[in-house]
Amino acid sequence: MKILTLAVMVLIFVLAFISSIIVGQTPISVVQAIDSFLNYNEAVTEHVVVLKDRLPRAVIGAVIGACLAIAGALMQALTKNPLASPSIFGINTGAIFFVVVGIVFFSVSSLQYLMWFAFLGATIAAIFVYFLGSIGRDGLTPIKILLAGAAISALFQSYTQAILVMNEAGLQDVLFWLAGSISGRTLDMLLPVLPFMIISIITALFMGKAINLLITGDDIAKGMGQKVWLVKVVMGVIVVFLAGSSVAVVGAVGFIGLVIPHIARAFTGNDYRWLLPFAAVLGAVLLLLADVVARLLIMPQEVPIGVMTAIIGAPFFIYIAKRGVTKL
Rounded CA gap, 151 and 162, in Å? Predict the structure, then answer.
């Protein structure tokens, strides 16, 4: 039954991917889209739009959506907190802070160079949170990592605001990273971090059984012979690579990592052998559809994709919090 459901999800993903290619300010039929692949002609506007704009955008949306969803599912298992998401590691604020530093102090303007600043900032922030959350006799605990994440996020956010107050000219350049956007992204920006994403996704999918044992409790996992510390470290590294790479490419896109794991659980329960692949597909679908809607709302302008995911995710977050769910 789960295989059949997953197959349906994949079909929905294909339809969402096609919609991302044909829907927008320049309407494109399926026939024109296919023709652009088979008989590309730079003189034909529709061909250029499909291959130079819509296809890279759809690919990036699908990859980023899958990465954020898997990162969120791992975070919720690692912290045993249903409200956890990649931003708990301070990844967004760390990435944005380093982007601001690159713009203001190093006069970096190229998005490809700023992407590496963002990736570095996301990684450093996550390492700090993981280190702080692991200090003490009990090691890494859900409460400690939540507090560490909140502290590091607040720290980087205050530093970012301080720099922007002193240099307001940098605010306009960093708005992209603050809101999150797929518009104008190219495959050249995705390729440098794609190896991190692929390795992390494959590793995560093979960790389903180990994660199932981990969420039963550290004591039980240790009693079954699991090296709990190693599983947690690997999960943390995967979250850093997936979420850090995503922020580096599209900016701060929130709520995908929070919402999608819960939707996936409706089909799989807490079995991470199934939850992770479901989350990957559903994350890709949600981000693709959010991007399509973002194009249509205020044409010819676009709503930042980060705003769209917030519109979708914020009510869901309130619903979970209102239910008083405290554990998975």
Answer: 17
> Which tops the pLDDT comparison, 16 or 157?
16
Report how many domains make up the chain.
1
| Max Cα-Cα span within the chain | 67
How many DSSP H helices and E strands does the chain contain? Answer: 16, 0
94 and 124 Cβ atoms separated by less than 8 Å: yes
| Alpha-carbon span 223 to 156, nearest angstrom | 39
List the alpha helices (DSSP H) in 135-205.
142-166, 169-179, 187-190, 194-205
Q: Say which CATH number the domain at 41 has.
A: 1.10.3470.10
DSSP code, position 51: I
How far is it, in rounded angstroms, from Cα 142 to Cα 113? 35
Cα–Cα distance for residue pair 34/31, rounded to 1 Å: 5
Q: Tell me, yes or no, whether 106 lies in a domain.
A: yes
In whole angstroms, how far apart are CA 125 and each of 119, 152, 156, 320? 10, 7, 8, 27
Upper half-sphere CA count for residue 207 (Cβ side, 13 Å): 28
| The total number of residues written for the chain in this structure | 328
* Domain containing residue 117: 1-323
Task: Answer yes or no: is 156 within a domain.
Answer: yes
* pLDDT single digits (tens) 293-328: 988 887 788 888 888 888 877 787 777 766 655 455
pLDDT digits (tens, 9 = 90+) for 142-180: 678 778 888 999 999 899 888 888 776 666 667 766 778
Tokens of 223: 């009693």
Q: How far apart are CA 91 and CA 100, in angstroms?
A: 14
Within-domain flag for 328 = no
**Count of CA atoms in the C-beta half-sphere (13 A) of 208:** 17
Note if the pTM is more than 0.85. yes
